[in-house]
Specification:
Number of strands: 17
Order of helices and strands: EEEHEHEHHEEEHHEEEEEEEHEHEHHH
Protein name: Nuclease SbcCD subunit D
Shape: globular
Radius of gyration: 23 Å
Structural class: alpha/beta
Organism: Streptomyces globosus
CATH class of the largest domain: Alpha Beta
Strand order of the largest sheet: 6-5-4-1-13-14
InterPro entries: Calcineurin-like_PHP, DNA_Repair-Maintenance_Comp, Metallo-depent_PP-like, Mre11_N, SbcD, SbcD_C
Distance between the termini: 36 Å
CATH topology of the largest domain: Purple Acid Phosphatase, chain A, domain 2
GO molecular function, one term: 3'-5' exonuclease activity
Keywords: DNA recombination, DNA replication, Endonuclease, Exonuclease, Hydrolase, Nuclease
C-alpha cells in the first residue's frame, strides 16, 4: 500500500507579514498531482491543518477546496487535528465527510477506532490520534497522570489492544501530533507544553508498522518506522536549510517500509545574512540571494544610516533586520527566546529564585512551584476548551 504522509499545512499563516495563501494553494495543487502521478492509495495528514483555532475565511475556503479535490480522486484521506487546530471546529461534519473518503480524527474518544483500508495483501488499520492535551484527555484515554508521555502512551495502549483483536497479519499505521525525542525543532512551532516542549520517546509507537508524525516543521526520520514529514512551506528563517517535502511511503505485505521524499514547491528561497552593511551590499557571493526572502543581522560597531532602505536596494525581499554590533561583551547573537529554548517553566522559575535570593530553592519550595505550574496549565487548558 502506498501512503503519502504530510502535515503542518498551517493554512492562513503568513511569513513575516507576507501572505502565504497563494503558496499554500500551490502546495494543494502539488499534493493532488502527487497523489495522481504516484498512484497513492491513501493520504495521511498529521495535524495543524490550520494555523489557529479560528482560521480566516480564505483559509477555510482553501481547505474546503482541498477536501473536494482529494475526495474527487477517490483516494482515502485520514486527517487529525494538531495543537494549532480547534479539534471541535475541524471535526464538524466528520461523519458525513467520512462517506466521501475524508476521515477526520479529532476526538480522543476515537483513538482506537481505525480507518480500515485494504489491498491485495489484506487489511491496513489506520489510527488517528489527534493532538492530546494532557489536562483535558487524561481520563478519556485512561492515563495514570497528566503528561504528554502518559496520555500518548495510554492512547497507544488502546491502539495495540484493538489491533490485537484483529485478524493476524493486519498491518497498522498511526497518525500523531507530538514532539518525539530525537526530533529537531525550529522557531515556528508553537510549544505543546507551557514554557517548553515535553518530548515523548519513539518507543511509545512500538507495535505498529508506521507512525506518521506532525508538529515539527523539518522533515526527519526518527527511525525507519517513525517519521516527521515536516511543513510543506517554511514559516521561519530557522527553516532556511530545510528541504521541504512529503513522504511517499510503501507499506509491504509483511509490514516492510520504504520511503521516498517528494519535494514540495518553494515560493521563494530563504537567506540568513550576517555582517557589516557595506560588506553585505558589495560581496558578489550574495548575488544568489538577491531574489530571496532575507533575514539580515548587521554587525557594524555603529548603527548605519537608513539600513533597511539600503539593504532593500540590493535585496528587495528583506523581511527581517537585526543588529548585533561587533565587540560587545556578549557577541553570541542569542535572543532571549533562544536562551530559554529547551528549558521548562520549573527550571526558569528555580533559576529566578536562586538569582534573587542567592540560593536555590529547597525540595519543599520546588514542590510548591511544580503544583503552581500544574494549576496554571489546567486553568489554561480549561479556558482553551471553553473558547472552542
Amino acid at each position: 500500500m502506498r501512503l503519502l504522509h504530510t502535515s503542518d499545512w498551517h493554512l492562513g499563516r503568513s511569513f513575516h507579514r507576507v501572505n502565504m495563501l497563494g503558496a499554500q494553494s500551490r502546495f494543494i495543487d502539488h499534493l493532488v498531482d502527487t497523489v495522481r502521478e504516484h498512484r497513492v492509495d491513501a493520504v495521511l495528514v498529521a495535524g495543524d491543518v490550520y494555523d489557529r483555532a479560528v482560521p480566516p475565511l480564505p483559509a477555510v475556503e482553501l481547505f474546503d477546496r482541498a477536501l473536494h479535490r482529494l475526495a474527487g480522486l477517490g483516494v482515502p484521506t485520514v486527517m487529525i487535528s494538531g495543537n494549532h487546530d480547534s479539534a471541535r471546529r475541524l471535526g464538524v461534519g466528520a461523519g458525513l465527510i467520512g462517506r466521501a473518503g475524508i476521515h477526520l480524527r479529532t476526538d480522543p474518544e476515537g483513538c482506537a477506532d481505525p480507518v480500515l483500508l485494504a489491498d491485495e495483501h489484506g487489511d491496513v488499520a489506520v489510527y488517528g490520534l489527534p493532538y492530546l492535551e494532557p489536562a483535558l484527555v487524561k481520563d478519556t484515554v485512561g492515563a495514570a497522570k497528566a503528561g504528554h508521555e502518559a496520555v500518548l502512551g495510554a492512547a497507544m495502549d488502546r491502539v495495540r489492544a484493538d489491533l490485537a483483536g484483529r485478524p493476524a497479519g493486519t498491518r497498522s499505521v498511526v497518525l500523531a501530533h507530538a514532539f518525539v525525542t530525537g526530533g529537531q525543532a525550529s522557531d515556528s512551532e508553537r510549544d505543546i507544553a507551557v514554557g517548553g516542549v515535553e518530548a515523548v520517546p519513539a518507543s511509545v509507537f512500538d507495535g505498529v508498522e508506521y507512525a506518521a508524525l506532525g508538529h515539527l516543521h523539518g522533515c526527519q526520520t526518527i527511525s525507519d518506522r517513525v517519521r516527521y514529514s515536516g511543513s510543506p512551506l517554511a514559516y521561519s528563517f530557522s527553516e532556511a536549510a530545510h528541504r521541504k517535502s512529503t513522504w511517499l511511503v510503501d507499506l509491504g505485505p509483511g509490514g516492510e517500509i520504504t520511503a521516498e521524499r517528494i519535494d514540495t514547491p518553494v515560493p521563494r528561497s530563504l537567506a540568513r545574512l550576517r555582517g557589516r552593511l557595506d560588506d553585505l551590499l558589495d560581496d558578489p557571493a550574495h548575488t544568489v540571494h538577491e531574489h530571496s526572502w532575507v533575514e539580515a543581522v548587521l554587525t557594524d560597531p555603529v548603527r548605519p544610516d537608513d539600513p533597511m532602505a539600503r539593504l532593500a536596494a540590493r535585496f528587495p525581499h528583506t523581511l527581517s533586520l537585526a543588529f548585533d554590533p561587533e565587540g560587545r561583551e556578549d557577541d553570541s547573537g542569542a535572543t532571549y527566546a533562544q536562551r530559554l529554548r529547551g528549558r521548562t517553566d520549573q527550571e526558569i522559575a528555580e533559576d529566578f529564585v536562586a538569582h534573587v535570593r542567592g540560593g536555590a530553592p529547597d525540595d519543599a519550595e520546588r514542590a510548591v512551584l511544580h503544583d503552581a505550574f500544574e494549576d496554571v496549565r489546567a486553568a489554561a487548558a480549561d479556558g482553551q476548551e471553553a473558547r472552542r
